Amino acid sequence: MNGGAKKYIIKDTKILIKKFIDSIKYATSVTNLNTKLHMLLSRRFTYDIFGELGSNSGKKRDFSRTMFNRQKYYENSIENIRIKNINNLIIKYHYSDFTITQTFHLEEFKIIHFLEEVTKNKKKGGKSVVLNGGKADSGYYLDVANNHLVVQPQYRAY
Fold it and tell me: Whole-angstrom Cα distance, residue 65 to residue 8?
């Protein structure tokens, strides 16, 4: 008969990372996050965080508090997961004007190192594009030539 603890070992990288994302997005307290991450992190786990939102480094015991304090950046963001190989993967979160890039190093389906870099997104200019080949541009003008029964102004693409 096998020991009870072995049935809780995750042996699939996709499931492991989905559980990590779920944990940091939806934990209700530091204790709750610590419990959720306990089976995902290696005993020798370390982390490094740097970028626009501050810097922090540490070991497993400090990680839950650090991530819980940053939870608002993950909650409402959209993540993009890229698995480089069985031991390395990257998650990118897009949060308003920041991009958060998390790099994971795995060993035997446990996270041994976590690296997070936060960069500010570059603002794009609002230049108008010239019409090409009869295609409509992305600009708009106020349509005041027609009668309208609505209170708000009407716009048409040109």
Answer: 24
